[in-house]
Design goal:
It comes from Trichoplusia ni. The protein is of the alpha+beta class. It has helices at residues 18-21, 83-96, 118-132, 164-183, 207-211, 214-227, and strands at 68-76, 101-102, 107-109, 114-117, 138-149, 155-162, 196-203, 231-234, 236-241, 244-249.
């Protein structure tokens, strides 16, 4: 129907009195038809659903919130000299505990996981780069296998603890990182951190079960280290914020 068809029309009536001829006629208004929206595409509101089944049983430490970027600072370990050892550790864990998974990446945390708003990512990264640029590079080494469980008791990790000399270097590094975190009013690292690199994990809190085979795991570790001592030059610090990666060079 044309839009012109909805214009108001005046009625004509020959029986009207003379007085009615001088006043406007009553309007007849047509109703607009109800629009048909059945074929109009509807854009869904933004939503995010975590499905632990898609991530081998892993769950988020805190819920996903749009605009909040999960962030942490760490040292990246990117050599493959430990693969034989990790494969042997996995065999023992699987035989005693059950299904065991490789960690997706090897790293040593220098901060807790914290939340940054998007507009703070760039200034935080700039401040962190300035802070760590004056720190000397150092060699990282491991001392033993140790078992850790996350704060949510959702995963238990088979990890390699660093040696005492590496511990001192990392303590100095985390103090510098803590300074940047304080600057942005973010939570600092643990008061007495235990620096380690997680290499394997299992679902749930299996700390007691894994500690019952810890001696066997450490025997494998010492045998492997004696055959081929493993150190790694730490000359960069990394930061991951959501899907953004940053790397800063040490002196």
């Amino acid at each position: 129907m044309s839009a012109l068809s909805y214009l108001c029309e005046y009625e004509s009536n020959s029986d009207d009195s003379d007085s009615d001829l001088n006043s406007p006629k009553r309007l007849k208004r047509s109703k607009l038809p109800v629009p048909n929206l059945s074929k109009v595409a509807v854009v869904p509101s933004d939503s995010h659903e975590d499905n632990a089944v898609l991530h081998e049983g892993r769950k988020r430490s805190f819920p996903h919130v749009r605009g909040n970027w999960a962030t942490f600072v760490y040292v990246n370990y990117h050599v493959d000299t430990l693969f034989d050892l990790i494969a042997k550790l996995q065999e023992v864990v699987a035989a005693n505990i059950g299904q065991c998974h490789h960690c997706e990446d090897f790293h040593i945390s220098l901060s807790r996981t914290f939340v940054l708003k998007y507009h703070l990512i760039s200034p935080f990264s700039t401040s962190l780069q300035k802070t760590v640029s004056g720190i000397d590079s150092f060699h990282l080494g491991f001392a033993a296998v140790k078992i850790y469980c996350n704060e949510e008791n959702s995963r238990t990790f088979i990890s390699l603890d660093v040696d005492p000399l590496t511990q001192r270097h990392l303590l100095n590094l985390t103090k510098k990182v803590d300074g940047v975190l304080n600057e942005f009013q973010l939570p600092t690292f643990y008061e007495t951190p235990s620096f380690h690199m997680s290499v394997l994990w299992v679902n749930g809190n299996k700390k007691l079960e894994l500690e019952s085979i810890l001696e066997e795991l450490n025997e494998l570790f010492y045998e492997n280290i004696e055959k081929s001592p493993k150190t790694f030059l730490v000359d960069t610090v990394n930061c991951k914020s959501g899907n953004k990666y940053f790397q800063y060079s040490l002196s």
